[in-house]
Every structure is written in structure tokens, then in C-alpha cells.
Amino acid sequence: MKTEKLEAKEARFLSIEDQLSDPSVIANQTKWRALSKEHAELSEIVQKFREYKEANKRCQDLKDILGDNDMKELHDLAKEELKEATEEIVCLEKEIRVLLIPKDPNDNRNVILEIRAGTGGDEAALFAADLIKMYLKFAESRGWKTSIADSRETDLGGFKEVTCLIDGQNAYSLLKFESGVHRVQRVPETESSGRVHTSAVTVAVLPEAQDVDVDIDMKDLRIDVYRASGAGGQHINKTSSAVRITHIPTNTVAACQSERSQIQNRETAMRMLKSKLLDMKEKEQKEKIEDLKGEQKDIAWGSQIRSYVFCPYTMVKDHRTNYEVGNVEAVM
């Protein structure tokens, strides 16, 4: 395994450590934060590289023992340890190769998660509610901060659509592949005759945009305020605190009603709008590349990324990887 790239990364890691203790860098908080982030990103691969170097050194020491006839009493033990060290090196090489794969620049960003009920009426809305609960539980297990920014609830407790903000380390990295159509097959709570229904829900995972990513002309925005709906006490229901922002050129809408203050809702809605516009911009660039490659994608029924089967048997299957598990309740 060639180590030139790894040695360069370790040298950069050490250089950053020196800079982080430099008073002039500490005084420049923007530079200090950028270096701290790079230091954190390099730390895992540098640690694995150091383990790799140590394992190689141990291998060489054991080979020296095996080649020394004056140390024959240690040969059996050295052979055992050499086998373990060699296996460790193979494992470390695999881990290092994965860590060397270029990362998505959005991986460490916060997430805007949108879930919309599709085919299936009330049952699709109920499954949308089940999915948001699933993602909230996952976020809680990771120690992430979550908040429901906007929702349209049905009379049965489902959601026609719901938007959630998720703040946490590597949130986008771990959630980005959830985007797509999620199909459910089960007997709905609303079904009295016990028939199995198939419904669909769409999930969109957007990386939160930074101020430098999207430049918005305020003249292109229409901002509406209205009374929030749902729980929240007298204040949230009696004042026009909810905010809806429409980007007129693209007809892109972002709304927030979760905060008590109209100002806070406006700030959150702007965050969401910027993320949507950034996503549109990135998709347009991707489509241009795919057009050049001659790629075509089908977005019709049957293009779902995952199926959740509750009846007549239980299974969750990811259609992109063909991976499946039988315990659907545990997944949910």
C-alpha cells in the first residue's frame, strides 16, 4: 500500500495542530473554526494510518525474531502474533481506502427533511406520520437536535406533508440516501374489512444552505404571514406568527409556524428556502451532466427506493441494494 498521500495528510494534521495553538490564529475565530473543522476531518484517517504504521513495525519485529536462530524458543509465539498483525494490516488497509474516498462537501451539514403523502389517501398520510416518528427516533439516538418547522395534519392524525429541521454532526451524510419514494403495504387502521392497501410517501433530504451558497434578491420574494395551526397555546393560535415565503421566479415555497415569534419563523423559513434553491441549483447541474452522458431516469410508479411490508408477511427491502430484513417493527 502506497503511503505518500497518508504521510502528506499526517503532516498537514500536525501543521494544523501547531496553528491551532498559535495566538494569532486563535484571535482570528473564522480561521480557527475552519482549521478546527479540517483537524477533526483528518483525525480519523491519521489515527488509522498511525495504527497501520505500528502494525507494520510489529510485523517487521516479529519477522526479525523468526529470522534469529538464537531466539528459537520465541518462534511459535512470534508466528501466532505475526498472523494476527498481518490480519490487522489487511483490515486497516480496507478502512484506510474507504477513508481516502473523497467526501461529499455537504456531508457535515444540517438537514431539512420533507415528507409528503402520495398515493393512498388517508393511509399514505398515516404512514407519513409513522416515517417522521421513525426519523425523529433515529435523530434522538444520534443526539441530534430536531424541530418540526411546518406541517399539514389530517383529521386522523396523519400528515399530508411535514417538514423537520435536523441539526447534528454528519446529519446529511447519514440521511441523504433516504430521499425517494417509500412504499408501504399493510392493512390500514381505517380499513374495516381487513384488506391490504399499498400506499406511497415521498421523502426529500436537503442539506442546509450556507449564506455563501445562495444569493437571493429580496425583490423576488413574497412573504405572507398567517395564524399558526395546531398545538402551541393561545399565543401561537391568536397571532399571525406563521410565515410563508415564496420565491416568485421558481415558485418555490418555504413555510414555518413552529416558533412563537414571527421573526424566528421568518428566519427559519429563509433557511429552508435557501436550502431548496440550492438543491434545485445542484439538480440542474446534475441534469446537464446526465444529458451530456445520455442518461435517462424513470420516475414512474415502481421506482421506489424502499418498501415496508406489514402484511401478509413482514419485510423491509431497499430496492437499490436488494438488502432486506424481516423485522419491520424494529426498523420503524
Provide a concise account of the structure shown.
This protein has helices at residues 4-20, 23-27, 29-66, 75-100, 121-141, 171-175, 233-238, 262-293, 328-331, and strands spanning 111-117, 145-153, 159-167, 180-186, 197-207, 221-226, 242-247, 252-256, 306-309, 315-318, 323-325. The chain is an alpha+beta fold and 332 residues long.
Descriptive overview:
The chain is an alpha+beta fold. It is 46% helix and 21% strand. It is built from 9 helices and 11 strands. Strands 2-3-1-5-4-9-10-11 form an 8-stranded mixed β-sheet, sandwiched between helices. A 3-stranded antiparallel β-sheet has the order 6-7-8. A hairpin with a 4-residue loop joins strand 10 and strand 11 (323-325). Helix 1 (4-20) packs across helix 3 and helix 3 packs antiparallel against helix 4 (75-100). The radius of gyration is 26 Å and the shape is flat. The model is unreliable at 231-236 and 295-300 (pLDDT under 50).
Strand arrangement in the largest pleated sheet: 2-3-1-5-4-9-10-11
> How can the largest sheet be summarized?
8 strands, mixed
Shape: flat
Strand percent estimate: 15-25%
Structural classification: alpha+beta
Please count the beta strands (DSSP E, at least 2 residues each).
11
Low-confidence runs of at least 5 consecutive residues: 231-236, 295-300
Order of helices and strands: HHHHEHEEHEEEHEEHEEEH
If you compute it from the alpha carbons, what radius of gyration comes out, rounded to the nearest whole angstrom? 26 Å
